[in-house]
Amino acid sequence: MNDKQHTIKAPVTVSGIGLHTGVQATMTFCPAPVGHGYKFQRIDLPGQPIVDADVDNVVDLSRGTTIEQNGARVNTVEHTLAALVGLQIDNVLIQLDGPEPPIMDGSSYEFIKPLREAGLEEQNALRNYFEIPDEIRYVDNARAVEIAGLPLDSYRLTVMVDYNSPVLGSQHASLTDISQFESEIASSRTFCFLHELEALYKQNLIKGGDLSNAIVVVDRVVSEDELSDLATMLGKPKVAVKKEGILNNVDLRHKNEPARHKLLDLVGDLALVGRPLKGQILAARPGHAANVAFAKRIKKRMMEADSSPIPTYDPARQPVMDINQIAATLPHRYPFLLIDKIIHLDAHTVTGVKNVTMNEPFFQGHFPGNPVMPGVMQIEAMAQTGGILVLNTVPDPENYWTYFLGIENCRFRRKVIPGDTIIFKCILTAPVKRGIAKMSGKAYVNGKVVMEAEMSASIVRKDA
């Protein structure tokens, strides 16, 4: 799995008809900055409102997942989102000039292909994974549906379906790593049973449905009169049924294509939690309603974890900036360069790491018989971390200096000693105006706050 966030290198466009609305639409995937996530923009509506791909914005689950925000609605988002998750793309603005993404061939492949052609661009921030901490479970006994999420240091999904059908029977599909999505899952098309088809039309759905973008499973004997009526309904001169029960001689791309498509839908629906996931997902007879209910449970656990946002440090993960990149940004040098790594950096927040060792030069004179890191050095290390954040707000940081203007409400909670790893987290508390930045900062050791302060700094051009 990727450690760094990614967007796409250039805009890419697809066009087609929407499955349920039947409306022709053009959809453009646009590059987006770090921390942006997935957002749809209805450019055909006044004000071009934006709809966040968020489970809290789901308003309808009639044979697809529909989201709504700011007076704008986007239907059937799951195939589009599944393609982005499958390619491990984190930040994209999806501009749409209609109410529904094009259905294309009924799978995610027709989105995967142009996104691949556009190319992926690595961004200077780590992916903000939510790692499922313990079992999260959703059960709907009435529909015999069960979905469970278990801890795992990757993203693995298994789906089992049982349609009580002589044509499909019981099927299962698995994805042992999300990197296999493109080759194993993306091409699997949406489907429905013949007995559902007429009901969907009566519900004013699948207006854009066609045998070129959906599989229709025929699980009973069909008379010639019924086939004639179906042809009229689908706008076809004639339809037929193959021996294996697929309408109009459509060949399956995989023997278990329906189960694979259910897995595709699950990937797309779970994208609505808003962060990439790590965990093992086991789903029996899933559907959009169950997927979204399960996604809400995951998001609730995420919010509970985020309510006490203590930064975590995994030494095995590649940093956003190593010591050489820090030295290329900050003017400090030995013995005053006090930050070893930057492990998170976005438009508002930075997290830095300082490994405290007995070899620090200040321990020679600061309580040598009882080595304690001086508070002023902790402030300086926090200031350097904040300097990285401030310089990230200008386009050419190498051409600027940062100078401290003030420190307020500074508190030291616990002593810091050799062997400690300090994690500094600084957050902009207001937009940078006239070169002045205001931040709040906290320092943690073993998940406990050791110091905190409010700081202000000035950004000055080197040639000023």
UniProtKB/TrEMBL annotation:
It holds the Pfam family FabA. The keyword NADP does not apply. Keywords: Cytoplasm, Hydrolase, Lipid A biosynthesis, Lipid biosynthesis, Lipid metabolism, Lyase, Metal-binding, Zinc. Its cofactor is Zn(2+). Zn(2+) binds at H79, H261, D265. Coiled coil: none annotated. GO terms for biological process: fatty acid biosynthetic process; lipid A biosynthetic process. Belongs to the LpxC family. In the N-terminal section; belongs to the LpxC family. This is Multifunctional fusion protein. It comes from Hymenobacter gelipurpurascens. The gene is fabZ.
